[in-house]
Amino acid sequence: CDYCPLSCIAVWKDLEELLLSGNKLQHLPDNIIHLRHLRVLRVHSNRLQSSPCFAKMASLKVLDLAHNRLDRINLATLVPQQLQFLDLSCNSRLYVDPRQFQVYR
Prior knowledge:
- The chain is mostly loops.
- The protein starts with 5 loop residues before the first helix and ends in an 18-residue tail after the last strand.
- The chain is 10% helix and 11% strand.
- The protein has one domain: Ribonuclease Inhibitor (Leucine-rich repeat, LRR (right-handed beta-alpha superhelix), Alpha-Beta Horseshoe).
- It has 2 helices and 4 strands, in the order αβββαβ.
């Protein structure tokens, strides 16, 4: 399976930690942002080429997107203000405009 079915997200509405690493996922469903209690999301070592907008996920503290196939991201839409840990390492095609980091100084 190369995706997480949309229907599975509604069942997990109170989930606090979701580990989907090493599953060859190519996409995450956009409605993953409705997991309001999610604090930890680890999806490293997949085949993700893009990422949903996590910026409005108020509880998210840890976001691990390492070892995927991401090529461009917008930190303003990806990163919630309260995020404490972000791993984007080993996305060999990833480009982040350095000016995006000025907000986080």
